[in-house]
Specification:
- GO terms for molecular function: kynurenine-oxoglutarate transaminase activity; pyridoxal phosphate binding.
- Keywords: Aminotransferase, Pyridoxal phosphate, Transferase.
- 36% of the residues lie in helices and 11% in strands.
- It is built from 16 helices and twelve strands.
- It has two domains: 143 residues, Alpha-Beta Complex (Aspartate Aminotransferase, domain 1); 236 residues, Aspartate Aminotransferase, domain 2 (3-Layer(aba) Sandwich), CATH 3.40.640.10.
- The chain is of the alpha/beta class.
- α13 runs parallel beside α16.
Amino acid sequence: MFKLASRARRVSPSTTKPSPLRPTLPLFRLSSITSMAAQQNQQTSAGVSASVSKPKQEKTFPVASRLKEGRALTLDVWSVFNAANLPPGCINLGQGYMNFPPPAWAREGAEEALRSVAGNHYAPPKGTLRLRKAIKQFYGTTFGKELDPETEIVVTSGANEGQYAVWAAFLEPGDEVIIFEPFFDQYLPSIVFNGGKPVYVPLHPSTETAPGVKIGKKTWNVDFAELKRAITPRTKMIVLNTPHNPVGKVFTRNELEQVAQIAEEHDLIVMSDEVYERLVFDGREFTRFASLPGMWDRTVTVGSAGKLFAATGWRVGWIIGPPALIKPTLAATTRIVFCSNSPLQEAAATGLEQARERGFFEQQLAEYEARRAVLIDAFEKLGLEYTWTEGSYFVLLNISRVRWPEGYDFPEMLEGRGRDFKAAWFIANEVGVSSIPVSEFYCEEHVDIGQNYARFAFCKDIETLRRAGERLQRLREFLA
């Protein structure tokens, strides 16, 4: 049995300072100041003296230290590289959302639910029985056993909320959680908000050329000596992400067996984030961590309807594991959101029930392999190194050779950020294709690894990717 978190304890204040590489948001934007000035001018014209009236000082309150430690108050990468800041017509290959809809037959499940009475009301906190049964059938015996929909599955409001609930259920203040870098950025605040301390183990870029291409490199590697050194008496959990965002790595069975040995030796919980499980390319083997000998009892597996069905806005995910891990997670998620969206649980259930007979995942995989090929071909023609994507829908491009004119006008919000922020900004504004700088997904100690890369998403239609590939060829004149 794993020890549950006690929420009766007060988290000790932290003395950790905000990262110098991630400046906090300004209190006022220029538009706010302009608006205040306009209001004052109107008052003056109405005969009210502006000289005797001063803008009211906004009252502030001390915020919890967890917001600072978890980077929640900083200007995050999604706020920098969003449509409002990018030039008109810029092709957005940064954020991982699709520009095509989920399958119509899956959406019909939500439409049917909205026409019913029950579909418009609260679902059970653990998820609708129909969806939990659909999840059981979908996974079959891939975990080495049949799942019990009553005690081994809980539906959550997206994968993120499910992970948050696990950390809320099991972390005590000071418990250490190992995450591999680069990491999905939501891991950090969710761990910190629940009293945990992230411990970072970097993946290392390969220098070997991937088979069948000229410039692409093989996937990144784990240094298991580093992983073992990261274990301390306070280590509570290891977080895996396979297929990996943003590297596109699919962990091999041998790598996962080594992680399993460490988890067994130190009695650790393992969170296996497998939301990209149906996007594994080139006939590569995908191993469920929980299916390894002895790992079911200590693993929570994370799944996502949004990733399976190109429906990220549904916010329907699930956590799978033994009752000792699922029951406390259910208790936490019930207090966090109570229950998840009822009609979209029906859409997810419809999708899982019909996907196999329709050959949906096989067709989707072929479509994503074609999309990957368009983007990779563009990188090969451009002559910039990239990491071969084994799974997920991201490619890392090495942008260390990108150069911009001296004195190029970058916005103040990029000051103090990694070099990749400026490179990605330059590419978006001068070439018209946006990406996400990878240093955002690192701690300060290892940021030098990340700032050589930008993440490009290929979860877009083929025509959009072709246009992006053509635009990227213009980068040649800016390469060292």
